[in-house]
Amino acid sequence: MRPTFLAILCFLAWSPSSEATGNLSPGAVGVHRRFEYKYSFKPPYLAQKDGTVPFWEYGGNAIASSESVRVAPSLRSQKGAIWTKSQTNFDWWDVEIVFRVTGRGRIGADGLAFWYTTEKGDYNGPVFGSSDRWNGLGIMFDSFDNDNKHNNPYISAVLNDGTKLYDHANDGTTQLLSGCLRDFRNKPFPTRARIEYYNNVLTVLIHNGMSNNNDDYELCLRADGVNLPKNGYFGISAATGGLADDHDVFHFLTTSLHAAGQVQEQPKVDNQEKLTQEYKEYQDKLEKQKQDYKKEHPDEHKDDEEWEEFYESENQRELRQIWQGQSQIADHLRELSRKVDEIIGRQETTLSLVSRNAGQALPPPAAGGVPQQQLPVGAVSRSDVDLLLTNQNMLLSSIREIRQLVGDINVRTDNIQTNQKHAPTAQIQSTGYDVQTLIAEMRDGMNQVKQGITHVGQRLGAPQGAAQVANCPTGNCVGVTLFLSVTVVQLLLVFIYNIFKNRSEAQAKKFY
């Protein structure tokens, strides 16, 4: 007797836990689960800026925001619904809904419904905001007691083959597959419902919203042998009557269920090609609408063109940047040309001074003293000539640097023009973004050259005042050979400058 009693006790202790485990996770062992984002929505950014919900469409009095979808607001006689745009391509599924039904009264109305049907329902239908005579499954979260049996709020599952009318007077009790009595109104936390359909077994689990534990589900109903049509639409609808509640849905998460080892073949769709085709069709449609609008409103066409002039394309921006860079280069070249002209003028002044005083004789020595070799006040000393030669060498090196810099500018400009010519015009060019860097490098080089030229000018300007009071050292005055050498160097400099000036003018013409 005692072993029998212990066996029965062990069986009773084991059965509830086993049943709860099977109910909470029906078919969970050996099932492959995959999240289906095209049949789901959740915050944040639930709705886009234009109010649309990706892969969903809603209507009636439904309102979508970034955090939730208010299927029916707390106003009298309001109806709304939200449906998926595409049919399912999987047989078994698991849907988790997070919602909240709140109202100011002790009794609410009318309720909210989950749908899985072959066709999309209406947005202002008679059955909780959706259409009657549906073909598929409806899970009703009924908050109003129509039959006055004091059994609401009530959750029921109703199947329909498209021929039956919903029994509102009896709250669908004559048609329901199964159900449970659960109060889901005005809870401190959102209510959660998990609806699973796998191997023709329908299971509904409910989280009563009394705790923030998201896994605190309890079994509401379970039905075997449920045959739902394939390739259906998911939807949520709600409605209010004489009484009103806010019906807010926060999450609608769909997961497809597949047997272990089953390979689910997904249709191969080239998304890039599809999006490109849709974009092309949209552009053609938009262009056609523009042409039609211009034909219907010829007076407003000029204003549109004036507004379009305020905007520039990527190619126009690149051409403007290139033009600005070449304009700055031309300005720097003009400044350099002016500086070189000043240097040449000073050199010519110095040469004229040397030629005027080269043939003058030395003054006689003083009586009884050591003969002193001095030049008149306007003579040029040997040190001045050495300084002049040094300045000439510095000028030559500066001109070489200028030529090298101009050569680099020509090479880079040719590269820019070549890239602009060969690159496709419909794409954003990469060379346009290097123009500012190139201009900065050119500006730095030009500043260095300007500093060098300024230093040369200062060095050249110094001997003019000193030459008037300098004395010619003994035996080191300017001779004919030195004078001719200086003359040849000056002629060579003038010749180089003419070549440089001609090239600069040619490049300037090329720029413009």
TrEMBL record:
<keyword id="KW-0812">Transmembrane</keyword>
<keyword id="KW-0472">Membrane</keyword>
<keyword id="KW-1133">Transmembrane helix</keyword>
<dbReference type="GO" id="GO:0006888">
    <property type="term" value="P:endoplasmic reticulum to Golgi vesicle-mediated transport"/>
</dbReference>
<dbReference type="GO" id="GO:0005789">
    <property type="term" value="C:endoplasmic reticulum membrane"/>
</dbReference>
<dbReference type="Pfam" id="PF03388">
    <property type="entry name" value="Lectin_leg-like"/>
</dbReference>
<feature type="region of interest" description="Disordered">
    <location>
        <begin position="287"/>
        <end position="306"/>
    </location>
</feature>
<dbReference type="GO" id="GO:0005537">
    <property type="term" value="F:D-mannose binding"/>
</dbReference>
<dbReference type="InterPro" id="IPR051136">
    <property type="entry name" value="Intracellular_Lectin-GPT"/>
</dbReference>
<keyword id="KW-0732">Signal</keyword>
<dbReference type="GO" id="GO:0033116">
    <property type="term" value="C:endoplasmic reticulum-Golgi intermediate compartment membrane"/>
</dbReference>
<feature type="signal peptide">
    <location>
        <begin position="1"/>
        <end position="20"/>
    </location>
</feature>
<keyword id="KW-0430">Lectin</keyword>
<dbReference type="InterPro" id="IPR013320">
    <property type="entry name" value="ConA-like_dom_sf"/>
</dbReference>
<dbReference type="GO" id="GO:0030134">
    <property type="term" value="C:COPII-coated ER to Golgi transport vesicle"/>
</dbReference>
<dbReference type="InterPro" id="IPR005052">
    <property type="entry name" value="Lectin_leg"/>
</dbReference>
<protein>
    <recommendedName>
        <fullName>L-type lectin-like domain-containing protein</fullName>
    </recommendedName>
</protein>
<dbReference type="GO" id="GO:0000139">
    <property type="term" value="C:Golgi membrane"/>
</dbReference>
<keyword id="KW-1015">Disulfide bond</keyword>
<feature type="domain" description="L-type lectin-like">
    <location>
        <begin position="33"/>
        <end position="257"/>
    </location>
</feature>
<feature type="transmembrane region" description="Helical">
    <location>
        <begin position="478"/>
        <end position="500"/>
    </location>
</feature>
<feature type="compositionally biased region" description="Basic and acidic residues">
    <location>
        <begin position="287"/>
        <end position="301"/>
    </location>
</feature>
